[in-house]
Structures are given as C-alpha cells and as structure tokens.
Amino acid sequence: MSRTMPEPGLSGRTLGDAVSWSTDPYADALRNGHGPLFLRRTDGWLLPLDVERWCAGADAADLSALRRCEGPVLDIGCGPGRLVAALAARGHPALGIDVSEAAVARTLRLGGSALHRSVFEPLPGEGRWGTVLLVDGNIGIGGDPRRLLLRTAALAAPGGLLIAETAPQDIDERVEVRLDDGRAAHAGAVPARPFPWARLGTPALLRQARPLGWHPAGQWEADGRRFVSLRRERTVLPTSQRADTVNSAPVISSQFPRNTSGDSPLAGS
C-alpha cells in the first residue's frame, strides 16, 4: 500500500523512494516469489532485480557475509528477510528494516524481526549496532551514498562493521529509476513513480567511505558477487557531520526478541 503522507523523519526525496518500493510491482513480486522486475533508468536501460534469489534461503555468498557479522545486526532494506531469518536461525540477534510492507510481512513470517521503516527515520539502538548490512545493491538507497554512509555511521557502534555488496564494475553512478515489471507497456497500466538510486563499485565505495570515518576491513568475492567490510572509527562523528540523521531515543518494539542482553539494541522493554 502506498503512503500519501510523510512519516516523521522522511524527507520528500526519501518519501518518493519509500512510496515507489511500496507499489504493486515490488509487492507482487515478493508475494509471488519471482519477477520479472527491473529498475528502469530514464534512458530505458534496465537493471534486473534478482527476486527469486531474494525470496530463497541465504546462499553461500550471503553466508560469506553473515559469518563476518559482529554483535547485533541491522539489515537495511531487508527485503523478504532471508538474511535476518538466517541470522535468527543461528541465534544471532538481528533486525530488518524496509519501506515495503510486503517485505516486512514476509520477514516476520520467516521468523525474523523487522520494522516498516526507512533508514532515515528514528530507529532502535542508534549508535549501538555491531554490524550494519547494505546487501543486494542497497548502498544505492536514496541515491546519495555519502548521506547513507553518514547515516550508517550514526547507527553503528564505535568500532562497528558495515558490510556492503558492491557492483561488479568500477562504477559510481547516480540515476533516477523506477520499478518496472513490464506491465507499464500495456493499456491502462500506470508506471511506478521514479526515485533516486545509486550504484557503486568497490573503489568508489572506498573513496566515499574513508573521509566519513569508515575504514576498509576486508574485501571478497563469492559466487560472482562482491562485498566490502568497513569498520567505523571509535570516535563519534561531530553532530555537524551527521547530515540528515535523527538523534532520537531508541524506539523499542514488542516485535523484538525478549531474551537479549541489556546492552543490545534489540533488548526488550
């Protein structure tokens, strides 16, 4: 279901992104467990979205990232929840967030914890997450990697990890895209609204991250997918550098596990 009014903490730019991912093509693909689904640029170029893989269980490439996770994990743009569910099955505390109600619902059905929330809204445990995940191209969220990297630095604990999946090419791209399942060409179909997106290869991500307090901790490739881990500086960024972040008290949800320690951002109220 699309939103018509902004939620607290959502800018108009981010709201457009949230509304787009809440539209029928994405929700329908998650409910069906398959595509076709693409991101379409204004020039007609298509980026296929791997819905089938997202809706399956965590694969070997996913597990190569999950094995590196430290402490409680925040999965930004969790989609249908395979990573959160895989962590939960291993007894590793994790929370997914997504702007798609269908994605959150599927994550909860798999036994994971998830919130219907944008990364730029107030979130539980800000500044206390041991690992933040940006997998499946989610470094592109909002179309402004610098803003997203600053936000993840505010969410991660001092010394915490950011694990990101990068594009296979050496690319640094900012584009306007829309979700496309091929039905827009049919009579009566209304195209999804465009929203900003970004694609970064590993060199571009490292260039963006270093000045913002993220330092390289590792790089690897698994099943043709590329990953980078970055470690946050142990000193806290000055408030003036935390662009577009929300410095609010953590919001604790009854959806979260109750058997976590008091130091965890997932600790129950």
Automatic annotation (TrEMBL):
Biased composition range(s): Polar residues: 238-263
MF annotations from Gene Ontology: methyltransferase activity
UniProt entry keywords in alphabetical sequence: Methyltransferase, Transferase
InterPro entries: SAM-dependent_MTases_sf
GO terms, biological process: methylation
Residues covered by region (Disordered): 238-269
Designated name of the protein: Methyltransferase domain-containing protein
Organism: Streptomyces pulveraceus
